[in-house]
């Protein structure tokens, strides 16, 4: 099972919900209320959906440096995907993973990026998230699906991620663009609700991640995604960061939709950068 687009609609997912080649993952989360997403999942979720938690499943433990949400350990991550029945290979091809949240794709995009980073390109996000599913009056459940036995095998694509040393080496390089994905006031250093230091990496330009979707959480049309990146589309590299490597993935999804493939994630992002200041 595959789709040629990294986004699926609620109607498409409803039609394919019982397809054994499709695995649905609930990624709902709230940075300031880290248990809320799991509670929401336990209250109501798309039938058959598994749950992955940003802190526990989509990140590795935090250290002094490396940011607030380091990339998870490959084998730990793979074990969780296998338990959801995700296959890298099968007679019908790789499993298509569909990720959703209720935060304008902030956390679903993290899983989308992680799967691609670990070599699994059969992944899409649900346009409009859980709200789109509810708006269509599709069924929901409290039932948790049983563990499965997939064969997901991680193959990290190391060229898709950069660390602070790479950013420092390339931040002043012609044809390399550093993109800050946070809200404008955080970029400008007027507000910093999470990290100990306010501001941005010198030379970075601001493309707030919320611009990728409308207020209802639906992706803006592809032509708008393309137009948004016009000024940087010809860059050799686009190094994208946010606070901790999460919402930057929404911008990386936007770049993908725009047909721009030179985007890379600075996984540690501002929380890593400011840990050295």
Question: Care to count the β-strands?
Answer: 10
CATH homologous superfamily assignment of the largest domain = Rhodanese-like domain
- The helix/strand series, from N terminus to C terminus, equals EHEHEHEHEHEHEHEHEHEH
Task: Give the tally of structural domains.
Answer: 2
Based on the coordinates given, report the CATH architecture of the largest domain.
3-Layer(aba) Sandwich
How are the strands ordered across the major sheet? 1-5-4-2-3
Radius of gyration computed on alpha carbons: 18 Å
What can you tell me about this protein's structure?
This protein is an alpha/beta fold. It folds into two domains: 7-156, Oxidized Rhodanese, domain 1; 159-276, Rhodanese-like domain (Oxidized Rhodanese, domain 1, 3-Layer(aba) Sandwich), CATH 3.40.250.10. Helices cover 27% and strands 13% of the residues. It has a five-stranded parallel β-sheet. 46% of the residues are buried.
List the helices and strands and how they pair.
Layout: E1 7-8, H1 10-16, E2 22-26, H2 36-43, E3 50-51, H3 74-83, E4 96-100, H4 108-117, E5 123-126, H5 129-135, E6 161-162, H6 164-170, E7 176-180, H7 184-187, E8 205-206, H8 222-228, E9 237-241, H9 248-257, E10 263-266, H10 269-273
Parallel strand pairs: 1-5, 2-3, 2-4, 4-5, 6-10, 7-8, 7-9, 9-10
Helix pairs in contact: 4-9
